[in-house]
Specification:
FAD-bd_PCMH; binds flavin-adenine dinucleotide; alpha+beta; FAD-bd_PCMH-like_sf; about 30% helix; globular; four-stranded mixed sheet; Vanillyl-alcohol Oxidase, Chain A, domain 3; FAD; D-lactate dehydrogenase (cytochrome) activity; about 450 residues; Uridine Diphospho-n-acetylenolpyruvylglucosamine Reductase, domain 3
Length: about 450
């Protein structure tokens, strides 16, 4: 007995408050199990109840209710995050915001949406109106706009538009966790306290994001005998300003062998670069590939865009998903290679680890600079070995954003001082997704300190 069910069920009605074990288990989980480290630590975490508000007013009521009873609140969009972001570490309520799914306006160059809108639905609507998303994660069919901004970073389109911090969020409506929750309208640099915050500094109910003019996209695969040729082609294409693109993803063999639905169209033993480029650039792409002794294989014409399984379904962290289907012992890292030394870094890693580490890259232009980002696959042996590999990557200048932690700062979000200050202001009792952000004050001042491990 937790004591507040009756009051909450009077507030919400029975249908939108779930207390049964099956629902609580299902909705207390995200994709943390990609990490054997997180799997061990998070498997048994469980909310006391799931509650699904239908509008902003109910969100505010629920936050006030939780504040009054000092109940921790963890928000959930679609629950596709990989770091246990949406897993409640200290029980309490999971606030399922997938019902706030209205597209409010699509104007010239922007969309204002409720946080629970699925990015796939938004992209479809925007394209009907001659526009499209600038950036989206490979999970876009399921993922929510609020979940992407609060828990993601970048994805398809980031080769042109950068990641979430590159002006790809224009405004957000945020609710605070107080006796009377405040409604804040946040824009400009102030958004940095809320982008990738795991719902720790405030709850986002509405969001305005920029849109790009609609383009027609051709998807193609370029094959190369060596991975080095494949990544050098990727770099050349990334730098080629006259070719518009959404995706450049070089994969070393045997990663392409994991892509079962593409088995018939991918060259055996070859490195593959998965591409989305503007319709009409095919000849240019082919010539560029030729310069690196490559050849274009499988092509999905622009008319087929989104009508069949797309190539982006094999890139970003979807690569890990396909690898896991073939070999359940595989896990992954998040790595930032140096733009001017990455070929040497690849050589060093392959020499040291061979097939224990398999590489693919997603080229990104962030802060105006091109960088070869990677989600390396790792054959998992032990946590010790995993952190030894991480140590080696770092020793040769490859930045690691550790995906095996739920702590914001350790995961590569970097300095979180400003977020901590904002949290203190917006969430004085430390009730929002407790345990995800380090705070000396949380440990002392709240019942819900970070309990790592
Ligand atoms: P959730 O998982 O529900 O939530 C994410 C975090 O945000 C949680 O901490 C949650 O508490 C918080 N949150 C959710 N909604 C709100 C809100 N309204 N207000 C405040 N906090 C909120 N990510 C990328 O960035 N790029 C990728 O290419 C990518 N590829 C992926 C591929 C696979 C196969 C998988 C499993 C994951 C991938 N991800 C990727 C991670 C994830 O899918 C995305 O970040 C996605 O956008 C998260 O959206 P969601 O609705 O599922 O969020």
């Amino acid at each position: 007995a937790i004591g507040w069910e009756k009051e909450l069920s009077d507030l919400m009605g029975d249908k939108r408050l779930l207390l049964d074990t099956e629902s609580r288990e299902r909705l207390s989980k995200d994709y943390y199990w990609y990490s054997p480290v997180l799997d061990r630590q998070l498997r048994t975490k469980l909310a006391d109840g799931i509650v699904a508000p239908k509008d902003e007013r109910e969100v505010a009521q629920l936050l006030a209710f939780a504040y009054r009873h000092q109940i921790p609140v963890t928000v959930r969009g679609a629950g596709t995050g990989n770091y246990g972001q949406a897993v409640p570490l200290n029980g309490g309520l999971v606030l399922d915001l997938s019902g706030l799914d209205r597209i409010i306006t699509i104007g010239a160059g922007y969309a204002t949406v409720q946080c629970g809108v699925k990015l796939g639905a938004l992209e479809k609507k925007a394209r009907e109106l001659g526009q499209e998303l600038r950036i989206y994660p490979s999970t876009f069919m399921k993922a929510t706009a609020g979940g992407f901004v609060s828990g993601g970073s970048g994805g398809i389109g980031s080769i042109t538009w950068g990641n979430l911090w590159d002006g790809n969020v224009l405004e957000a409506v945020i609710y605070t966790m107080e006796e009377t929750p405040r409604r804040l309208v946040v824009n400009g640099k102030a958004l940095y306290d809320y982008i990738h915050n795991y719902g720790t500094t405030g709850i986002m109910t509405e969001l305005t994001i920029p849109l790009a003019p609609r383009m027609e996209w051709v998807q193609s695969v370029a094959h190369f005998d060596s991975f080095e040729q494949a990544v050098r082609f990727g770099e050349a294409l990334a730098k080629e300003e006259t070719i518009r693109k959404r995706l450049i993803s070089p994969m070393e063999w045997p990663i392409p062998s994991y892509f079962m639905p593409l088995a018939k169209v991918l060259e055996l033993g070859a490195a593959a670069v998965l591409l989305e480029t503007a319709n009409g650039t095919q000849e240019q792409v082919k010539e560029l590939a030729l310069r690196y002794q490559g050849r274009i294989g499988h092509v999905i014409e622009a008319e087929q865009y989104r009508k069949t399984l797309g190539l982006s379904d094999f890139t970003w962290n979807h690569t890990t998903l396909w690898a896991l289907k073939s070999d359940p012992t595989i896990t992954y890292l998040q790595a930032g290679f140096s733009p001017d030394q990455y070929l040497e870094q690849i050589r060093l890693i392959k020499n040291k680890y061979g097939d224990e580490v398999l590489l693919h890259f997603e080229w990104v232009r962030s802060g105006g600079k091109l960088s070869p980002n990677s989600l390396p696959l790792v054959k998992f042996q032990s946590e010790e070995r995993l952190y030894e590999i991480i140590g080696y990557f770092e020793s040769i200048g490859v930045k690691i954003f550790d995906p095996h932690t739920w702590m914001l700062a350790n995961g590569g979000r970097g300095e979180v001082g400003s977020m901590q200050r904002k949290k203190r202001e917006n969430d004085p009792l430390g009730l929002l997704n407790p345990g995800k952000i380090q705070d000396e004050w949380t440990e002392e001042g709240s019942r819900y300190g970070a309990r790592h491990g």
